Amino acid sequence: MRLLLIEDDRQLAVALQRALRAQGYAVDHVGTAKEALLSLKVGMVDAAILDLGLPDMDGTELLRKLRSEKNRTPILVLTARDSISDKIHGLDLGADDYLAKPFDMEELLARLRVIERRLGTAQSACINIGPVSLDTAAHSLSVNGENLSLARKEYMLVKILMENAGRVQSREQLETKLYEWGEEVASNAVEVHIHHLRKKLPEGFIQTIRGVGYTIAKG
């Protein structure tokens, strides 16, 4: 899943990006509401993490503006405003979730997994399709109970496909979810990752839909 982190605290943003990337997320960062609006209008983000204390516009106004413009990108508010009234206000404006600072990273990750399940076809953090098991909470993939060693992009790719089992993902969609701004993307990058995954997974597990993209059949 590709995330947009809207946070003006540079130190916190760097730490969050590092932690989220380690869990298999692609994370782009902006520090102002203006940048966030431009980024979200492009529509290449699966979900956003929003700090309310932005320098150029209050985050609640940004949220109000996005929802008034029919932008339905899932938004998790991450803020120091921790009163019940603040939480209710944020949720009523259209936030999908609300987490107060200071927060536990494990809780943030769990809430992001809930958003992923809403966007995909999976029903829980553990996805079992045939002999292949993905545990997004433990960040692990196994075949017949044996854990596989995967490169970061390989894990991200199989996670996207398994979370969207039964749906075809085009190469362009996969590139968008796998790579952040500024990352160099070779023209055959997705194909190379698929090739490596197929060597580790059961034959036929990842299916090619010629001229369209890739998919994994639902279990």
Describe the model.
This protein has 219 residues and is of the alpha/beta class. The chain has 2 domains: 2-119, Response regulator (Rossmann fold, 3-Layer(aba) Sandwich), CATH 3.40.50; 126-215, Arc Repressor Mutant, subunit A, CATH 1.10.10.10. It is 41% helix and 20% strand. The chain has 8 helices and 11 strands. It has helices spanning 10-22, 33-42, 59-68, 84-92, 105-119, 152-163, 171-178, 189-200, and strands at 2-6, 26-30, 47-50, 75-79, 97-100, 126-129, 132-135, 140-143, 146-147, 207-209, 213-215. The strands form 3 sheets. The protein has a 5-stranded parallel β-sheet with strand order 2-1-3-4-5, sandwiched between helices. It has a 4-stranded antiparallel β-sheet with strand order 6-7-8-9, with helices on one face. A two-stranded antiparallel sheet has the order 10-11. The radius of gyration is 18 Å and the shape is globular.
Low-confidence stretches: none
Helix content: 40-55%
Average per-residue pLDDT, rounded, comes to: 95
Task: Give the beta-strand count.
Answer: 11
Fourth-level CATH superfamily of the largest domain: Response regulator
Domain count: the total is 2
The CATH topology annotation of the largest domain reads as Rossmann fold
CATH class of the largest domain: Alpha Beta
Distance between the termini: 21 Å
Strand order of the largest sheet: 2-1-3-4-5
Q: In sequence order, what are the helices and strands, one letter per element?
A: EHEHEHEHEHEEEEHHHEE
Please tell me what the overall shape is: globular
Determine Rg (CA atoms, Å): 18 Å
Q: Structural class given helices, strands, pairing?
A: alpha/beta
- Characterize the biggest β-sheet: 5 strands, parallel
